[in-house]
Write a structure and sequence with these properties.
By secondary structure, the chain is mostly helical. The chain contains eleven helices and no strands.
Length: about 325
């Protein structure tokens, strides 16, 4: 998901602000830092890996800051949520390091909540308010600089603060009642932002493959956020609905839309894309198996293996049919 966020923002921010794209040198720097961070975590050195991730975030934020400073256009108000997302990533990484070093499981859990859930969720909400209506065929609703833009920016800021505070606080309230209350606040904030910025009742695009996949990911994302309301003690199951059914399916869907659109294949948008259908089916299977593993402890190992194989197969199918198109130059550039 880190690679998806860096790639998407590295593409979107220059377009939204009317500034130059990332240079080849900047891309190489990000890629090297990302691979080193990833390799450190694989080598089971989480503290060093989190520290390197903070360095990676700092470098990437500086690249975006330089473009925002020379912008010719005002970004959408939902960009405030993107800034909150970066705050979650920085704070989450630092809290994870502190909690691990001090042997404070609650501090480390607060950090992982902010980093693993808050960072990606706030980016999806912030950029989703701008991108998702376009994918669903809704007319653009971009407020011009002025009172309306400021009002929406404040709305985004309050949404980001509520989600961030409830995620961090969850680590320090191990009782049943409070996780439900915090989850209720979190889902109310996320749903209010989505409903205000993505009016699903006015969707005009027919139910083709990409729109159905996008709707499915959004439903599962909300379902995962709402999961603690019914099963507060099955925290891991709800998180896997968010990660697999929400975040990863959203990444596959949006990634397909962006890559096809930027490589001259936008004529495929209204068609039935069987490789996306297969990806969605396998991701949904992985999600169901992973959640079932939390409720069936005696079959947990087999269910988790099945979930891993299903998700990896989905990733391979998607990569074979989508990633080669990254090498094609944007015909509209």
């Amino acid at each position: 998901m880190g690679a998806f966020v860096f790639g998407f923002l590295g593409t979107a921010v220059p377009r939204l602000t009317g500034t130059p794209s990332l240079s080849a040198g900047e891309l190489r720097t990000l890629l090297v830092l990302y691979l080193v961070t990833l390799g450190t975590h694989i080598a089971e050195q989480p503290v060093v890996g989190d520290a390197l991730f903070v360095v990676l975030l700092t470098v990437f934020a500086w690249m975006l800051r330089s473009r925002l400073a020379q912008r010719t256009e005002l970004p959408p108000p939902g960009f405030v949520l993107v800034v909150c997302g970066f705050g979650n990533a920085f704070a989450g990484s630092l809290l994870a390091i502190i909690g691990t070093r001090m042997l404070r499981a609650d501090v480390a859990m607060a950090g992982t909540n902010l980093l693993h859930v808050g960072w990606v969720l706030l980016h999806i909400l912030g950029l989703g308010g701008f991108l998702l209506p376009r994918m669903l065929g809704l007319p653009p609703d971009e407020p011009k600089p002025g009172p309306e833009w400021k009002a929406r920016a404040w709305f985004a800021g309050v949404t980001g603060v509520v989600i961030s505070v409830t995620l961090a606080a969850e680590a320090f309230v191990p009782f049943v009642t409070w996780p439900r209350a915090l989850a209720a606040l979190r889902i109310a904030a996320a749903a209010a932002w989505l409903l205000a910025n993505v009016p699903f009742h006015r969707v005009r695009v027919p139910n083709v493959t990409l729109t159905l996949a996008l709707r499915t990911a959004l439903v599962l994302l909300i379902a995962g956020l709402a999961f603690p309301l019914c099963y507060p003690l099955q925290r891991a199951a709800g998180l896997h609905i968010i990660f697999l059914g929400g975040f990863s399916l959203m990444a596959f869907t949006v990634g397909t839309r962006v890559v096809l659109g930027h490589s001259g294949f936008s004529h495929l948008f209204p068609t039935r894309l069987w490789f996306v259908v297969a990806t969605v089916f396998l991701v949904l299977s992985a999600t169901a198996l992973r959640v079932a593993g939390e409720f069936l402890p005696f079959k947990r190992a087999n269910l988790l293996n099945g979930a891993s194989h299903a998700w990896m197969t989905a990733a391979v199918i998607w990569a074979i049919f989508v990633l080669p198109k990254v090498l094609r130059e944007d015909p509209e550039k």
